[in-house]
Amino acid sequence: MIIIDYQNRKPIYEQIVERFQMLIVKGVLEPDTQMPSVRSLAAELSINPNTIQKAYTLLEQQGYIYPVKGRGNFVSGSKTLLDKKRNAFFRQLETLVKEGKEMGVTKSECMACTEAVFEEGEH
Asked: Do the beta carbons of residue 110 and residue 100 sit within 8 Å?
């Protein structure tokens, strides 16, 4: 379910947060389903439980999960999470397109690249 890329410069807890965000937004983890326990996920990934706890705390602060005393963490069921994630994507895309324009990337080059990326996922 969660795979850590040790070559990635991003901290492990951020990678965990991003993976869970995508699983939740895509609906792979449905609302009100229980998250893996901190201990079991730490053992599965062979990392410190504090790293998992830090990731879960961030996910809770962002509204992706909620804790239930004595039972663990559960997936939130909010459509606004998907909207937030999509809005953040479009803000990033806007920034990248503006940077590309400043470097002389043409609209047709940008569209061709975008088209190619979308087609990659269809094979």
From this structure: yes
Q: Which residues contact 15 (CB under 8 A, 6 or more apart)?
A: 4, 5, 8
Q: Is the pLDDT of residue 122 over 70?
A: no
What single string gives the DSSP state of each residue in 61-123?
Answer: HTTSEEEETTTEEEE---HHHHHHHHHHHHHHHHHHHHHHHHTT--HHHHHHHHHHHHHHTT-
Q: In this structure, how many other beta carbons lie within 10 angstroms of the beta carbon of residue 46?
A: 7
d(CA 96, CA 108) in angstroms, rounded, equals: 15
Average pLDDT, the chain: 90
Q: What is the C-alpha to C-alpha distance for residues 95 and 93, in angstroms, rounded to an integer?
A: 5
| Tokens of residue 92, six digits | 């990033």
Give the number of other CB atoms < 10 A from CB of residue 73.
19
- pLDDT tens figures, 64-118: 999 999 999 999 976 777 788 888 889 999 999 999 999 999 999 999 999 998 8
Pairwise CA distance, residues 60 & 95, whole Å? 28
